[in-house]
Amino acid sequence: MFDQELKPYQDRFAQHPIYETIRSVEHVRIFMSHHVFAVWDFMSQAKRLQRDCTCVELPWMPVVNEDSARLINEIITAEESDIDHVGHPVSHFRLYLHAMAEVSASTEKIDTFISQFAHSHILGKSLDQARVPAYVQTFVKHTIKTARNASTAEVASSFLFGREDPIPKMFQTLLERWGLTAQ
Predict the structure, then answer these.
(1) Model confidence over 41-53: pLDDT tens digits?
(2) Which InterPro entries does this entry report, sorted A to Z (predicted)?
């Protein structure tokens, strides 16, 4: 039943105009320079779920649901310390930055943002100082607001149906449109 309620939204996402507008390497560079912020803010939702589904406090206490704890811990492990092509641990965020470098996409805005946020811990100010476009700021602020203030169920829904489920499909669609295969 829930799948039926989501289907119109999933179909809309699958038909998003962005797929038609990314037609060149320069378009990929621009897309990646903005999408990297979604790669970064994704971890805030993941960390919120880890906090809610596991014990990250001292002293340690047993978790209520070991299945949920294991699932989120597996996701976090892969996201924070996956293994790269030469066998070294690397976060998916850093992998994305490496991919950006491979296509010569600018990392200036995300680098500036990370540096500013590490010092100030003020989200809006850091986004402004990095000159992040307004629509990217709106997206990031919404994600962080959800991670900070929504219920665990709402965060899990946003995480699953807004990121984990559609994003691989998005990249697969782009690869298919370009006549490429995932490697």
Answers:
(1) 999 999 999 999 9
(2) DUF3050, Haem_Oase-like_multi-hlx
